Amino acid sequence: MLTDKELDNFIICKKCDTLHRKIPLHQGGKALCSKCNTLIYHRDDKMIEKTLALVITTIISLMVAFNFTIISININGLEQSLSLLSLFSVLLEHQQYVVGVMFLFLIVLFPLMMLSSIFFALFFITIKRYGYTVRRLLILLSHLKHWNMLDIFFISLLVAMVKLFDYAKIELGIAFIAFILTLGLELTITKNINFDELWRKYENTYGDNYDKE
Ligand SMILES: [Zn+2]
């Protein structure tokens, strides 16, 4: 039987299941599957810094998307400028509870949870502290990453807006652009983040001492 440590030296191609022995890569290097040529793993020493910068940009963009006018709405001749957050209360006023809750969860809570988890995990790794929290966050993120955020956000936003079209004339505002930008940035983060690399960094940073904090 192989120990966990020895198993760490092997990696399976996600596409064709071929087993490969890992070799150390130079900065920017990529390891391809010898059978199907799929990218198996790569090394990017600047991944944490790059992702951290992206996450901070995304949080700023998300704040703009939340607080500025996303749509101007005309209900019964009454002109009203709505932010994403006030859009939520409008949905509730019109008894769109299911859409409202979906909207709150998918557009507000889920991205905030995802972004702050990534932010704190990367930030703590950078300052080399709170290993136990980093471990919990990485486990949480490995579950969350299977969600295709872009699709569900966009669909729920569209559903919310289509519902509002029944009641109102709608014009798009600055926050709508910020929202699209946020979605693009989130997609880039999801593509960029490399969990194998993060776990490797985690082990290099905290060793076996994460329980002691
Ligand atoms: Zn393969």
Write the layout of secondary structure elements.
Blueprint lengths: L3 H4 L2 E3 L6 E3 L8 E3 L6 E4 L4 H21 L3 E5 L2 E5 L1 H10 L3 H30 L4 H14 L4 H17 L2 E5 L1 H19 L2 H12 L7
Antiparallel strand pairs: 1-2, 3-4, 5-6, 5-7
Helix pairs in contact: 2-4, 2-7, 3-4, 4-5, 4-6, 5-8, 6-7
Description:
The strands form three sheets. The protein has a three-stranded antiparallel β-sheet. A two-stranded antiparallel sheet has the order 1-2. The chain has two domains: 1-43, no CATH class; 46-212, no CATH class. The model has no long low-confidence stretch (mean pLDDT 82). It has eight helices and seven strands, in the order αββββαββααααβαα. The radius of gyration is 22 Å and the shape is elongated. It has helices at 4-7, 47-67, 84-93, 97-126, 131-144, 149-165, 174-192, 195-206, and strands spanning 10-12, 19-21, 30-32, 39-42, 71-75, 78-82, 168-172. With 213 residues, the protein is of the alpha+beta class. The structure holds zinc ion (ZN). Zinc ion binds at residues 13, 15-16, 18, 33, 35-36, 38.
